């Protein structure tokens, strides 16, 4: 194990240990001052701190995931602060009351006990201040991410036009429309309308940073309808989209190049193109998978090494917006094919 890895493992443990011992020592000192008995005060301080820790763990397990779904940031911050206050003071009072019964000391309205009460109230104030700083830091980080996306917009515009409205795709679509004009004029007209909608979305999307996932999926659906006019029943698409991720934010023009790549390279031996588009929430991320059943990518393939513009552009935008760990993930799709995975952090 390297020194860096050892430090990354030890530092969180030390922080949690300090976070447990600090309130235990302060509570034990306050109770000792009020009662004059050492060992019951020390044990009570440990019980008070342990009760706070249990309440914190339960909050992280059950309450925090629910709070992340609150869309209004300031409302979410207010709820988190209020619950932090309650999860510190409530368990501490219960632990103090129980220990006073066990050890036989009285909690009275004296100066010493008033100081003890101030110590108990001080812990959530410290945690609340820390939460406020974290909230402010997250807002600034989100602003920086949006600024990076805006900085990429001008550069991405031309690349997006090449990637999203690929010349081969445009050429094939025009051929499809030409063939449909006499065979199925209504379908030809519908295909032209969808193509014009795609152009409008691309031109507007190049000026936008983040868009709801629902909009991006609607753009992908329009693209697939055009391809379905070309491939007919040979193209099948399975959508597995959780409703609670539809309003999640995602960089605009980031999914269609991946779907187009799957259509282009994902046909099976019989010419059938079977795609699956899946979007689910995992902890604090939205995970989007685009899977095909084609011949698959070579071992060790990376999105950054892709010769085409589309996937390389998406991979670059994701890394610059969210960090290196959020680049495209490419893996095999058993028994055959490829899965391209996009992981986008949930705001807040």
Give an overview in words:
The structure is a single chain. With 348 residues, this protein is α+β, with helices and mostly antiparallel strands. It is elongated. The longest helix is centred in the middle third of the chain and has 54 residues, at 111-164. It contains nine helices and seven strands; from the N terminus they run ααααααβαββαββαββ. It has two domains: 3-140, no CATH class; 165-345, 2-Layer Sandwich (Heat Shock Protein 90), CATH 3.30.565. Helix 2 packs antiparallel against helix 3 (73-103), helix 4 packs antiparallel against helix 9 (309-322) and helix 7 runs parallel beside helix 8. The strands form two sheets. A five-stranded mixed sheet has the order 2-4-5-7-6, with helices on one face. A two-stranded antiparallel ribbon has the order 1-3.
Question: What does this entry show, briefly?
Answer:
The protein contains 9 helices and 7 strands; from the N terminus they run H-H-H-H-H-H-E-H-E-E-H-E-E-H-E-E. A hairpin with a 2-residue loop joins strand 4 and strand 5.
Task: Furnish the topology, listing elements before pairings.
Blueprint: H1 3-35, H2 38-67, H3 73-103, H4 111-164, H5 167-183, H6 185-205, E1 210-212, H7 213-231, E2 235-241, E3 249-251, H8 256-265, E4 273-282, E5 285-291, H9 309-322, E6 329-332, E7 338-345
């Amino acid at each position: 194990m390297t020194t860096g890895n050892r430090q990354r493992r030890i530092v969180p443990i030390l922080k949690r240990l300090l976070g447990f011992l600090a309130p235990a020592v302060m509570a034990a000192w306050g109770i000792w001052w009020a009662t004059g008995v050492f060992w019951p005060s020390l044990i009570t301080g440990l019980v008070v701190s342990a009760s706070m820790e249990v309440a914190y763990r339960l909050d992280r397990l059950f309450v925090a995931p629910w709070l992340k779904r609150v869309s209004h940031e300031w409302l979410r911050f207010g709820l988190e602060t209020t619950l932090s206050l309650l999860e510190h003071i409530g368990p501490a009072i219960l632990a103090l009351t129980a220990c006073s019964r066990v050890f036989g000391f009285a909690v009275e309205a004296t100066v010493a006990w008033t100081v003890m009460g101030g110590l108990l109230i001080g812990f959530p104030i410290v945690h609340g201040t820390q939460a406020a700083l974290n909230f402010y830091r997250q807002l600034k980080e989100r602003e920086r991410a949006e600024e990076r996306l805006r900085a990429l917009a001008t550069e991405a515009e031309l690349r997006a036009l090449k990637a999203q409205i690929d010349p081969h795709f445009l050429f094939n679509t025009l051929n499809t429309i030409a063939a449909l004009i006499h065979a199925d004029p209504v379908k030809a007209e519908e295909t032209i309308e969808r193509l014009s909608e795609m152009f409008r979305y691309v031109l507007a999307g190049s000026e936008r940073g983040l868009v709801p996932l629902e909009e991006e999926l609607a753009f992908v659906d329009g693209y697939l309808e055009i391809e379905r006019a070309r491939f007919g029943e040979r193209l099948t698409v399975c959508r597995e989209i959780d409703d609670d991720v539809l309003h999640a934010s995602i960089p605009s023009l980031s999914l269609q190049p991946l779907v187009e790549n799957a259509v282009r390279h994902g046909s099976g031996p019989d010419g059938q193109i079977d795609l699956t588009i899946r979007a689910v929430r995992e902890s604090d991320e939205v995970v989007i998978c685009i899977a095909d059943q084609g011949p698959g990518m070579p071992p060790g393939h990376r999105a950054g090494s892709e010769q085409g513009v589309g996937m390389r552009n998406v991979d670059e935008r994701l890394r610059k917006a969210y960090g290196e760990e959020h680049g495209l993930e490419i893996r095999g799709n058993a028994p055959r094919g490829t899965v391209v995975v996009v992981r986008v952090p949930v705001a807040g």
